[in-house]
Design goal:
Layout (H helix, E strand, L loop, with lengths): L11 E3 L7 H10 L4 E3 L6 E5 L3 H11 L8 E3 L10 E2 L3 H10 L4 E7 L13 E5 L4 H10 L3 E2 L14 H8 L5 E3 L11 E4 L6 E4 L5 H8 L4 E2 L23 E5 L2 H10 L5 E5 L10 E4 L5 H10 L4 E5 L2 H4 L2 H10 L9
Helix pairs in contact: 1-4
This protein binds adenosine monophosphate and magnesium ion (MG).
Length: about 325
Amino acid sequence: MDGLLVTVVKTLLLDPRCNPSALEQAAQLLRAGDLVAFPTETVYGLGARVFCETAVARIFTVKGRPLDNPLIVHIAALEEVRCLAADVPDTFWMLAERFFPGPLTVVLRRHARVPAVVSAGLDTIALRMPRHPYALELIRLTGEPIAAPSANRSGRPSPTTAEHVLQDLQGKIAAVVDGGPCEVGLESTVLHLLTDPPMILRPGVVTAEELSAVLGSPVGYWHSQETGPVPSPGVKYRHYAPQAAVVLVASWEAVRQWMANHTEANPVVLAPRPSQEHIPVVFRPLDVATLYAEFRRADAEGRSHILVLCTPAVQANPALWDRLRKAAASQLEEAP
Ligand code: AMP
Ligand code: MG
């Protein structure tokens, strides 16, 4: 077609385990202003150089991400904080000493030189130092912090393997660094440090108890029902959802009843352990590290429903329970 420029890219799969220059190639692409997905210990991120405004803007386009949903900036050394954040409180350094590198993101005041698009126009900035060695090395080789949300199409479950990234973004990004499956499998804890008390905007494996032990003071939770300005626009979107309907059930008895009422359905059950009695349904283990992979597998298999057995232990895990409730189309179903 005349005058229409269509850019088709083949997304490179770069695996440092069999290609010693994989990370250098990935860094070169980032330095040139391209987008590269990479593994972290939580989920795969879709990275752009933080000071390259056009590359950061492209993250929103390729993900289909709402423009008011800010990105997390990934650093490899603490001195990088000085050029990203302003008025950094002492409490930040206390948290960094204990939890960096690791699955904790801290929201601070944004430094004026950081492009506003990174934070979707907010005057704050979310910072994290991942502990995955490939992520740290990639940031060092690039020579600049990397803005990176999860490397999925917006609304899809976060990717925990390079294959998941390709399912969503093949042909739309320059490369993905393959580091195998992510260790944690759920997104980082996000802590807003400018509120009083500091507030958890998104639960993760770093808990409120661990944070308040370091801070020496209580930490709150931001709940989506609260009125007033939304401190983290991302939390208002429906996240983490597969195409199959996610149904939360309280017991195997509730699974049995659900099956009796939905004889046409083609479900899979995720549960901490298999049922002791014979219930004719496909069972898969419910585990933080493989939750999103199981969501994607159920979609690939064309399942109509994913029943998740939410034992008291599952409901007591803040990060897992948060993601399950966000993915579910319904309330917890209990057997009468
Ligand atoms: P993702 O990296 O895709 O998991 O999304 C990043 C999450 O961090 C979203 O829920 C954002 O809303 C949140 N976040 C990023 N930057 C900020 C910020 N400046 N203030 C509050 N929340 C933020
Ligand atoms: Mg995300």
